[in-house]
Amino acid sequence: VLMTFYYILNTCFMPFLEVVRSEDTTGPITGLALTSVNKFLSYGLIDANHEAAAEAIENMADAVTHARFVGTDPASDEVVLMKILQVLRTLLLTPVGAHLTNESVCEIMQSCFRICFEMRLSELLRKSAEHTLVDMVQLLFSRLPQFKEEAKSYVGANMKKLKMRAGGMSESSKWKKQKRSPRPPRHMVRSPSGQMEPTQSSTLNNNSVSGGVLFIEQGLSTSILPASDSAGSSISSPTTTDSGLDTCSKATSREDLSDLEQCSSSATTPSTSEGRQVEPAQSASVESIPEVLDYKESVTESESTSVHDMDYVNPRGVRFTQSTQRDGASLTPYGLPCLRELYRFLISLTNPHDRHNTDTMMHMGLQLLTVALESGHIANYQSLLGLVKDELCRHLFQLLSLERMNLYASSIRVCFLLFESMRMHLKFQLEMYLKKLMDIITSENIKMPYEMKEMALEALVQLWRIPSFVTELYINYDCDFYCSNLFEDLTKLLSKNAFPVSGQLYTTHLLSLEALLTVIDSTEAHCQDKVVSSTAQQDQSETLLAEGEGSTKNGTNTLAGKHNQLSLYGHLSVRTFKTYCLDSVKKAPKKPQRFSSCLPDSQELMEIRTKKKLLITGTEQFNQKPKKGIQFLQDRGLLSNPMDNNQVAQWLRENPRLDKKMIGEYISDRKNMELLDSFVNTFAFQGLRIDEALRLYLEAFRLPGEAPVIQRLLETFTDNWHKVNGSPFMTNDAGFALAYAVIMLNTDQHNHNVRKQNIPMTVEQFKKNLKGVNGNKDFDQDMLEDIYTAIKSEEIVMPDEQTGLVKENYVWSVLLHRGATPEGFFLHLPPGSYDNELFTMTWGPTIAALSYVFDKSLDDNIIQKAITGFRKCAMIAAHYGFSDVFDNLIISLCKFTTLSSESVENLPTVFGSNSKAQTAAKTVFNLAHRHGNILREGWKNIMDSMLQLFRAELLPKAMVEVEDFVEPNGKISLQREETPSNRGESAVLSFVNWLTLSGAEQSGLRGPSTENQEAKQAAVLCIKHCDPEKLITESKFLQLESLQELMKALISVTPDEETYDEEDAAFCLEMLLRIVLENRDRVSCVWQTVRDHLYHLCVHTNESCFLVERAVVGLLRLAIRLLRREDISSQVLLSLRLLLMMKPHVLSRVSREVAYGLHELLKTNAANIHCTDDWYTLFSLLECIGAGVKPPASFQLTSTTTDNDTGAQSDSELSPHHPSEVNVDRGYTSDSEVYTEHSKTRIPRSQTDVDVASSGWLVVGKDDLESSKIPPVSSKAQLNHPLVNQYSLTLGQDLGQHDTKSLIKCVETLSFIVRDAAHVTPDNFELCVRAIRVFVEASLNGGYRNHDKKKSHKYDSSKYRLRKKAGGREKEGGGGMRRGGSRASSQRPSRSHSDDEEDEGVPASYHTVSLQLLDLMHTLHTRAASIYSSWAEEQRHLEASGRKIEADSQTLWTSCWCPLLQGIAWLCCDARRQVRMQALTYLQRALLVHDLQTLDATEWESCFNKVLFPLLTKLLDNISPADVGGMEETRMRACTLLSKVFLQHLSPLLSLPTFAALWLTILDFMDKYMHAGSSDLLLEAIPESLKNMLLVMDTAGIFHNADSRTGFSDLWEITWERIVCFLPHLREELFKQTVIPAPSPPVEPVQQTHPASRPPSPPHPASPPPVQLHSLGSDRSSPVPRSLSPMPVPLTASPAQGPSPLSQSPLILQPLASPLQVGVPPMSLPIILNPALIEATSPVPLLPSPRPTSPSDEVK
């Protein structure tokens, strides 16, 4: 096999190569040979694994690159060249190509370049060469990972060989001379300079080329310096001063393409006259960059090792190396060296300052660099990276300034690739690049093409899209003390640029927006991923927990927390992150010094940024006045105080913003000598030649001009340099002299002014000047020569001095120096690390830009893009909880909906026809639905929009319909219909309108146009999509804070005076209430807010209106729904007191709503009310609503006194629950409290005291009245504290007018409570009884009070159910007329209290009510005993509860039986006969019921005093004048009842000390009734009853007394004295046998029999009664209730009343204060209170004045 392979090679293959090499063959033959060679390759005949393959391949490469042939005509020659290209391409790209050596690869590339750049060849061929090159470069760089970096020494040697091989290339870009050509070819392809000169080839064997073959020796390498070296040396900046440039430009064709790059990138002298390349002095190239050597981890392959290893460099700097490839020696396959050389060559092609580089060449260079960067990962190879950092970036940035679009575009592309993959190593280059782009974008230069700006922006957008690029910008620049705020500045720039100045949108604006949105997009993607992964993690952790792995919840949360911080594309779990961190630690063991970790937290970043701001301010101050700047930084704590010289020196060195001139002045100041030492110590001068060290030193500040100052600076420098370099000179002074000489030389060589006058000194002169300076000896002459060369070729640039290229070079070299220090460290971050911070910085500009673009653009795609942007911003804001961002966004979007800006009339049309507004509206609502949780201020705008929609009637029906109690269907629309304008306008007005309008307008009036209708439909549809109702229903998922803000927004709409629209307020109120109901579960958190709002609406209003009605209904609706919730029910019930605080006339207007609402409330929730206070509230409400009772004073007072800014007092303030304070604070005493006080103390109770309590209303002592601070508002002010008279059947309430329907509803409610035994509790029993009595009074005589008052204020509620448009044209009068016909009034039964329909039904309804009440009283009366005993039973089990319930007769009498009997009795006085009769029947049943038998004497006595006597008194009035007969019958039945009761309970009554008085009163009534009637009915009935009584009493032996002289008791005497007055003959009829003794004087007997029982004005009930001769029960007989105590009632008649007609006989006992005789001394008889008379004398009328019969009439 071996033989055959050798055979193939030698016999078959070699001949073809010979043909190719031969210069005598013509083109076609060479072409055929090349084709055959190509077949060998493409058919795979050469076995790549064979040991001989390498040599064969090498031979082939050599032959083809040196192909020669005799030219015929250009076309066929080009065919051959084409074939050469083809073979070279196949050779390099087939597997065997791997055997090529570095030299061969360089030659192959070079051949292709030559074809490519030869302009005389056809374009097709050139393009083919270009494509071939692209493929080759791609292959070479994609193989990069297979190559290793060689040892430095090896690289040095190898590269030299390459260069010298390339020497073939490098020495010229010209054709080789044909040595033996028979004739010159017809066409010589010339190099750019057109000369043909022999090359000086010094390596591989047959290097000579013939036959016009293109041999592109355009220097793949220009200098023998390895590229790494030029990378190193490049740091000493290029010296293209004018002369330098000249030399370059004069350079002849010997120079290769990269010559200029040579001159500018290292200390090379351009080619000498003999055309020989002069190599740069080694030492200069390396050692001039000490800092780089210090810091760079092997970035430069420093030549210092390799140079001296194997090579000899001659004095001219030309290096000689021995060739390694002798015949038979092994061939090394190509590797990094050729790639590096190729890369360096490509970079040299891009140098715009090299005039040999045509545009085509630069473009080609950029194109191939692009391919190289795309194919290989160059950053891992220090030798290549060095080239990138310096030359490549430099050339690219220079190209950006050229206004040649194709080069500009290509260089931007290359920059993108560089910074995408290598920004870690190019920190300051990236900063410079971005600044350049910013300059281009903001450039005001008119000549600059628009496309350049566009491309610069596009470049930014591309960079922005690199994952985590912006984050790195922020961390590495904005958070670096000495870099510019790139991210912030760029964001501002982009934002500003997104705003079109002209108002027209161009691509640049959209690109800027695109860049801003890129940040938002990536942040949003990370947020989404975090959400996804955190939920996934939670699921995992839950399953783990479920499996019992016991991972604590805590653990998973912290995990998720970390995760949120750093999700890498969302999939970076914590584990991956740790490995990521470790990797980065391995790669970059250091982190930036300013950070405490690889990933500093936000707090740390904030501190750095604050510090940075201070540093910038300090720097600015330093640049004006150094001391001031230092002082400032010391004050801010950034520099230590007292001053630390080392610290300040370090700051002066590392802060690039400082003015170098100021640094020079500051450090050279005499006072700062120590600082100067520290400053010099910051340099690392070790191992540097003195001129290099000086160059470094003088770069750091501007050398001042004064000699002594310069001396001071240089002395310090030389001392330091001398010390660290081991004192190479004899003395320090020698060093000083040399340093001075170097500065002088620099000035001499490079200062224009000096050069004008003198010829620059030569190296000899320089040496001569320094003779004997080194301690009387000479310096090393070679060193001086080197110094001279270095200074001559490259100026020591003084900062801030030069301009143009020199300055550029200086700036660049400073940049490279900074990059080599730790400052150049670039922190690489996982994507999504600092999204939070970035978003905080970008959201403002982004939302502004989005809004602007959204506003200005008409293109749907752009609008859609803006909306997407808004959505993403919202999502991020929600994710991070940035409510300010979200509010801002919603507010911006609300503006675009046009909802708030358009007038209501035009809104449907405008909104419906504006698709952009609709899009905005949908977005607003969509965002509010999705991220409502973080909405705060924005709610206000959303609610304003809702209001506008409401006004424009665009909301769905469900939202404007609300619950209502009175409406039959339970709903009412908030949009009360307008009075239809066409019908409404009076005819005249319409006619006038018709006359004044033109035809077109007229048609408009007739109805909306079809477009308008369509628009309105579109609007309605859009709003339906928005689903505004969801905001309310979903509010239960909002965070509390957001919910509170939403409610605040709704409350705040409650209008200011100017824009007040009741309907709007009602709509907002309804939304508020719905939201509260949706949030029932946490209503306690928001209740106070809602309550205060309702308080404000109800209590402060002075007239009733739709809004108040809605507020009242709303409050009741809330109560109905919320009472089931234990936690809040008590608060809700307390809040119902709001209604009692309303001004009475306002409350009466909404009485029907309240009545119906309360009915609903009690029906659904009666079982949930457990507290007397709450029942008290409810019953008070029922009474106020149903019977027109004035609300209890305590509430009214509160509303006036506490009308402070906060609105209402909280309910709890209103009614403290401490029983001890109850009388003081609450202003009322609930019945049960009075009872419990007594039942606890169990004092022997006097009847009246308890009775006072049983009245159940307000018992007010004098102190209370006085302490109330409110001055009486009117003469009736005290009515707020009604003084209850127990001896009246009425409650003494001033009943205002009431609404019939409300009364009926309230009675229905009451009966619901009473009929269900479960609802009657100890807490509400007395209140219930009392309420019934109030309604009895209200319904008396068919509500007679109401009808008198009604007419005074007619109130038409339909009026406020109608909408009055602001600025409506209707006049009030017309409005009234119109309303009748409008639909609105039919929409709801009118609520006027004087409705005709109601008037017709009134008697009937009142009749029912009265009968219903009678039935209720009777029911309660009969069930009372059993109810109480069952309570008492329960109570035994609950002894501990502290409140005892007694079921004894006393309790029952006071709290239940007595009040109920009084109530029934009062209905017996009704003017309606039926009611009267029914009531009497009930009263009779009630009094004779079995349960009452248990009562004792005192209770029966009070039954007479409180029930029967007042009833009889009342019946004496002419109650029903029309019905005389009926009245007679009633009176007769009443009398009969009286005698029945008297006789039935005679025996207990006899035990009473006051029996005589009682009996006399009965006789009195008999007397009065005898004379009352006009018919005979009473005349017959009364004597019968009387006879009956007398006989029974006589039988009982009451009249007999054995001791008296007559055998009869005193009572007998008195009785007959009384009866004689009206029935003189009765005694004879009954007791014919008895003797009548002589009448005794009227007063005495009484006095003897009955001593005084009580002074007429009793003291406070608690004090013991004064002298009592007969033992009476303690307080109980006190006949005057304590409520009267402040007003003593004299027994002597007040003259005003005059003598009563009833007091003719001196013996008649007048109850209470009816005068017996004027001037007669007061009687000391027990006084029986006659209610009628109390009323007559009471200073406060207990019943309202307009009554059919006034009390005084009764008396008369």
Automatic annotation (TrEMBL):
Residues 1214-1224 have a biased composition (Basic and acidic residues). Residues 604-794 form the SEC7 domain. Residues 175-189 have a biased composition (Basic residues). Residues 228-237, 1693-1703 have a biased composition (Low complexity). Residues 1653-1667 have a biased composition (Pro residues). It is a peripheral membrane protein. This is Golgi-specific brefeldin A-resistance guanine nucleotide exchange factor 1. It comes from Sparus aurata (Gilthead sea bream).
